[in-house]
Amino acid sequence: MSQLIIDSYEAFLAYVGQDLGVSDYHKVTQEQINLFADATLDHQWIHIDPKRAKEEGAFGGTIAHGYLTLSLVPYLWDQIVTVKNLKMMVNYGIENLRFANPVKVNDEIRMHANLANISDLRGTIKTEMKVKIEIKGEKKPALAANLIFLYHFL
Q: How far is it, in rounded angstroms, from Cα 110 to Cα 48?
């Protein structure tokens, strides 16, 4: 599916209840996990110590932080939809977030997005997206959530 271009409330409205698309796969590397650990000061061995994670861990190696996986949403979202004609966009909230499956080092992930609902709040558009981040080769997703974005078009 090619990237959607949305430039108005009416353009968003046409996709309510529909899949918006799927991103490309992104490989989560140990370097990325280590950088995230440094940025968040979360240096648990299950994330940053490959030898110990392989010997003692439950996953056969290191795993990405759940919040690292979540933090990739904007990058993956930009591959699915480009929203133009904007004055402002705000991440408003996350509902029903579940980390259902760990992302192991070198796993490839991608995101599916569905526009669940949209409303016009006196000129600011509130969108509710159902997203799922899949792990290549796994049936269970890494995470599922309802993301809420606010858009103010020009």
A: 23
pLDDT higher than 70, residue 1: no
The one-letter amino acid code at 60 reads: G
Nearest CA-CA partner of 96 in 137, 141, 58: 141
Q: Say what the pLDDT of residue 132 is.
A: 98
**Exposure class string for 80-117: b at 16+ Cβ within 10 A, else e:** bbebeeeeeeeeeeeeeeebebbbbbebebbbbbbbbe
Do 120 and 54 touch, CB atoms closer than 8 A? no
Element (H, E) at 149: strand 143-153
pLDDT band at 2 (very low <50, low <70, confident <90, very high): confident
User: What's the start-to-end Cα distance of the chain, in Å?
Assistant: 27
pLDDT given for residue 129 in this prediction: 97
